[in-house]
Amino acid sequence: MPPSVPPSTPPSDRRGPSAAAPPAKRAALRRLGEWCARHSVLVIVLWIVALAAVQTANKTVGGEYSDDFSLPGSQAQQGQQVLQAHVPAAAGTSSQVVLHDAQPLTGFAPQVSQAVASLAELPHVLGAQSPLPPAGQPAPPGGPLAADGLTGYITVRFDTNPTLLGDDYLAGVDAAVAPLRASGVQVEYGGPLGELARPAPDDRSSEAIGFAVAIVVLLVGFGSAIAAGLPLVTALFAAVVGLGVLGLIAALSTFATVAPTLATMIGIGVGIDYALFLLTRHRQNLMDGVDPVASAGQAVATSGRAVLVSGCTVIIALSGLSVSGISFMAKLGVAAAVTVVSAVCGALTLLPALMGLIGRRMDRITVGRPIAETGTASEATTGDTTTSEATTGEATTGVWHRYARRVEKRPWWYLIAGVVALGVLAIPLFSIQLGHIGDGADSTDFTDRRAYDLMAEAFGPGSNGPLTTVVDQSAVPAENRPTVQAAVQQALTGLPGAASVGPLQLSPDGVVLFNTVIPASSPQEQATTDLVNHLSDTVLPDSVTGTGAKTYVTGNTAAQVDFLDIVSSRLVLIIAVVVGLAFLIILAVFRGLLVAVKAAVLNLLSIAASYGVLVAVFQWGWGGPALGVAGKVPIESYVPMMMFAIVFGLSMDYEIFLLSRVHEAWLRTGRSQDAVAHALEITARVISCAALIMVSVFAAFIVSDNIVIKMMGLGLAVSVLVDATIVRLLLVPAVMTLLGASAWWTPRFLDRVLPHIDAEGEGEKAEPVGR
């Protein structure tokens, strides 16, 4: 496979049309950076005003966050619509108000009746069912009152998901059950109502931990207190502005409860990384004697271009989530993209302003040797030089340069070692179990967890995930409906996997049959998912074959199973779309077909390794209890899809940062191995520093009370760590060495079709003072 440029072509002629962006675009970025540096006070004031404005608007008209797993057209949703049309009192979203006392609850009959009546009068409540039987009658077996009479639950049905109703609504629920609590009865909220009662997520401790580690890393890396503070200030400003914008968007559409935390996690991580990439270039310029304003402009025109390309890549990867057709997933992608946009804006405008304001006082307070680029390679090289020093103009004494030379001598050994390491980490992936994490895995500080435990102890674990079967007989002649009812009841008798099956009830209009099935297992167990699928796919349809009746399984647990099935079926599509988009971006930026293939394959391997770690920690239980997770839990159904889009996008940061320097050196010298060593010498310290910061930011969210956030934090931290070490420092140098000049080969027809993107603003050089 021939290289895209013949070896005999002089280095100065190897740039070609793909090596440089149009002059107008380069000049525009340079002018932006210089203008922000020259008018630093104005830019900083504008950012402060923007931050205050969006936060004030968010507190005034910002929206609420809520988890809504409903899917239009799904079986659970269709079943709810049938119930709503024929049995409104049995439709809607149900939640349990769980009661427990050391004395039988029948002794609190007046307070229970008062609470039920008050709950039924609340807005959005379709009905409330008392756990106590009528006076003088025994409690029916399998009913809402336990056999010992100490535990019972009020079933409250809402016409909407209670998590959408806000904290003010919860005050009304608390007032309704106040007489019970005043009498000493323990009252806990289960299901969606329990989620509404949870305190708002407080990520300040996670953010503080992430920032503390980032400060230490930046101080050690930069060796300057002022320089260390600039990426943190930029990332914080950008993240807060982005969260304010997200809150305003949430007023127009419902976002998941994890959306702001996810946006914070991604925004701070990429914000620090982007600022770090620009700042290292700027500091090298200052060391070379360049004027601070000109240096800021050149940093934005070069590394700023890489930030712009990387940010666009992350956003494109996140937009791939919309291919799932699930609004819940697409909105999570939007939430993360909002703070990525604000991080890019902060790096390209606020950071140059801060750099211009500080000027040459960057190293006034030093604590060690700073990180900066190792110098600019000599342009005056010839094609017949044989040593790295002569070819690149770089000293070969650097530790990373020597490391790259060792990789060049035994590339296959390093390649095999890296692949084996990723393969070992990925082994647990083959036993992954997707599902929904039940309330039983949460902390006992939450009312829904306490309600879960009371229900499980008194009624069995399946009582926390009741299923409602629905049979629509609209198309069945009236004379045949009794036969249908008998067939359905017989099919449900002795149902495997069910703890109890309630009697079939007939809607007032005689058209719809419905009943309650209590699984024998907890909602998050695979056995419950199997029961739902068995009911919806086999038991109910077979029982009404040939009659014209339609069957559904609905309820919260059934909706979660439908969500899982749809997410699982579309995960491969998401992977294909995201990989395809990232492949095209790398191909357009570097004009190398094999480089793009390499990036896609290695990123897939690193993500598989991070999935394997998640399975081992949470599903196998190897580290879940240490992280505050009760027992073994499945991998939340949408976490792999979200992780894939985010990680694949974030990995492009380091990919573009490293490969742009390899490509830059290769275009200048035409020597592939020297280009790899030169790029690794320049970027390895910065990539390691940036990755360590991002890992610390993500890992800090493991202390979150939300288990999904724990999963996301650990998964993203492992992904970045693996990507920045095994992939970026082991596999990429080895593969690039093996590929040689053919890495940059592109078929002519592709070169004509693809857009020309300059990732590092090749040709943008700042002039030292006085030149």
TrEMBL record:
Residue numbers spanned by region Disordered: 1-23
Ranges of Pro residues composition bias in the record: 1-10
Parts of the chain that traverse the membrane: 35-54, 208-228, 235-256, 262-279, 306-328, 334-359, 412-432, 571-594, 601-622, 642-662, 682-704, 724-745
Keywords of this entry: Cell membrane, Membrane, Transmembrane, Transmembrane helix
Keyword Membrane part of the UniProt annotation: yes
Chief localization: membrane
Stretches assigned to the SSD domain: 225-357
Keyword hit for Membrane: yes
UniProt membrane topology term: Multi-pass membrane protein
Subcellular location as annotated: Cell membrane
Superkingdom as given in the UniProt entry: Bacteria
Name of this protein: MMPL family transporter
Native species: Kitasatospora misakiensis
Lineage of producing organism: Bacteria, Bacillati, Actinomycetota, Actinomycetes, Kitasatosporales
